[in-house]
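ugh ok fine here u go
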Amino acid sequence: MIHLHGKKILFLSVSFFNYEKAILRRLSELGAEVDFYDERPSNSNFSKGIIRFNKRFYHLKIKEYYNRILNEIQDNSYDFFFLIKGEAIPAFFLEKIKEINPQMEMIYYNFDPLKEYPDLISNLIYFDKKFTFEYHDSIKYNLNFRPLFYLDEYKNLNLNSQPPQYDVVFIGSAHTDRYIVGEKVRAVADSLNLRSYFYYYAMGRVSFRLKKIIDKHLKEFDISKVSFEKLNHQQIIDFYKKSKSVLDINKPFQHGLTIRTFEVLASGRKLITTNSDIRNYPFYNPNNIFIIDREDIQLDPEFFKTDFKKIDPDVLYKMSLDSFIDCLFGDAQNDYWNAFRNKE
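structure:
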């Protein structure tokens, strides 16, 4: 494990279901002194929308926010600057913190395809080490390839096993074609007498209604099936404990694996996924992972009759948050993760 005792880290991250807090907590447990800031000035639905679609309209607010951070940290000395995603972060801030800490190592990680967020590309030049969860982006932009991770809370749920209440569970945000695909899976599951539970989450009623106007996929979404209450990790874990398998629906243009993938497999639950790229990972096992075609959904009843096959402990460790931190702050793991890929 990378030695971080006494190291000082300036950590900025987009807010993503409290995973940034879990990373912050683990860095601190490993002995690092961490100053953390949300990389967005605000996490209101309005602010997120403005930043995502045209942050020039939010320029003054962003400038004011980052100048305040600079004022607060101007007398601090850091060993590392660590940024996750960086939708709002301005170039002047990246230039200034490097000027203040010329020996500081700049580390970047992105868990979304750059095709979806092309504005992020221009800031890559400021970083010494750059990582992405998307293999194709790692090739195109010369980035290190490092998939996401699971939190330890999800590990080995089979130690407290109970008869499954559901055969298929889906828990996820309402975006792109998730509802369309999810409801097709539900219909197929019903036809096979499989027990299912679906939880579609949206940030807020107003923003969801606006998205329905803009996004053709969401037009079909039955709002009565949407929840506006976010489940915490313990609630999600409780559903996993009751389930034989978990459905994961990636974005149609995304090849990188969702964090849900790692949590499900670490928990000892079977995975049903629309992401065929999972075949190129060390933990792929058709006994545990069933790949579906989002255009022609079929389920095999036999998949639900066999037990989960344990993942090799070394592979399971590589999927963990500790390994993720080790990779970003220590030695990159390109040789490991790329070794399992079919040459394309």
